[in-house]
């Protein structure tokens, strides 16, 4: 049963909206206004009508849908094809303490927070206040904001927390901060990076080697979808190809 505070996917014939249900409030679309009180108490899969009589299905959104279609973006996001892999490579599970820097719009943070739920924490270090505020609102949409401890903080400054189980860094020049991050990582903890160019990869690898990190890896993930038509199955004309290089290592 849907209750106040739940995030719902309102899907019409041509329109889709992702909203948090608030008692005694309304949501306006060009197809008419929907009263949230008409949604509270219904089940996912039911329908609701706007004041103009337009029908919308009330669906439970997946994290994938929230990330691609629901969150507000101020920055380029880390796509699910990368964020799911990053989360597995970092070995994230409930109870872990994770450092993240460069929250962007929070797409990766949502995936990591879901893996850490209910007892893990992500300590986010972000120097841009508008990015941090927007990402926290996006985390509320996913009902995962309780996992994140935000800091308006530059990685060049001392990091107050210690003993992190894992870290992920997504900033322009991450090699400048690896030594600072290393000082607060547990021995054997995995650190990850995402950068768009080979020049950046080279600088990261140089610094990781200098600081005696172990098991260095560089990877990229390509995703190709196909047209789901049985009589003429073929790849889509476009694909999500290079989005960034992934680098992983363990703190030695």
UniProtKB/TrEMBL annotation:
<feature type="binding site">
    <location>
        <begin position="105"/>
        <end position="108"/>
    </location>
    <ligand>
        <name>S-adenosyl-L-methionine</name>
    </ligand>
</feature>
<protein>
    <recommendedName>
        <fullName>tRNA (adenine(58)-N(1))-methyltransferase TrmI</fullName>
        <ecNumber>2.1.1.220</ecNumber>
    </recommendedName>
</protein>
<dbReference type="Pfam" id="PF14801">
    <property type="entry name" value="TrmI-like_N"/>
</dbReference>
<dbReference type="InterPro" id="IPR029063">
    <property type="entry name" value="SAM-dependent_MTases_sf"/>
</dbReference>
<comment type="similarity">
    <text>Belongs to the class I-like SAM-binding methyltransferase superfamily. TRM61 family.</text>
</comment>
<keyword id="KW-0819">tRNA processing</keyword>
<comment type="function">
    <text>Catalyzes the S-adenosyl-L-methionine-dependent formation of N(1)-methyladenine at position 58 (m1A58) in tRNA.</text>
</comment>
<dbReference type="InterPro" id="IPR049470">
    <property type="entry name" value="TRM61_C"/>
</dbReference>
<feature type="domain" description="tRNA (adenine(58)-N(1))-methyltransferase catalytic subunit TRM61 C-terminal">
    <location>
        <begin position="57"/>
        <end position="227"/>
    </location>
</feature>
<keyword id="KW-0808">Transferase</keyword>
<keyword id="KW-0489">Methyltransferase</keyword>
<dbReference type="GO" id="GO:0160107">
    <property type="term" value="F:tRNA (adenine(58)-N1)-methyltransferase activity"/>
</dbReference>
<feature type="binding site">
    <location>
        <position position="170"/>
    </location>
    <ligand>
        <name>S-adenosyl-L-methionine</name>
    </ligand>
</feature>
<comment type="subunit">
    <text>Homotetramer composed of a dimer of dimers.</text>
</comment>
<dbReference type="GO" id="GO:0031515">
    <property type="term" value="C:tRNA (m1A) methyltransferase complex"/>
</dbReference>
<dbReference type="GO" id="GO:0030488">
    <property type="term" value="P:tRNA methylation"/>
</dbReference>
<keyword id="KW-0949">S-adenosyl-L-methionine</keyword>
<dbReference type="Pfam" id="PF08704">
    <property type="entry name" value="GCD14"/>
</dbReference>
<dbReference type="InterPro" id="IPR014816">
    <property type="entry name" value="tRNA_MeTrfase_Gcd14"/>
</dbReference>
<feature type="binding site">
    <location>
        <position position="126"/>
    </location>
    <ligand>
        <name>S-adenosyl-L-methionine</name>
    </ligand>
</feature>
<feature type="binding site">
    <location>
        <position position="154"/>
    </location>
    <ligand>
        <name>S-adenosyl-L-methionine</name>
    </ligand>
</feature>
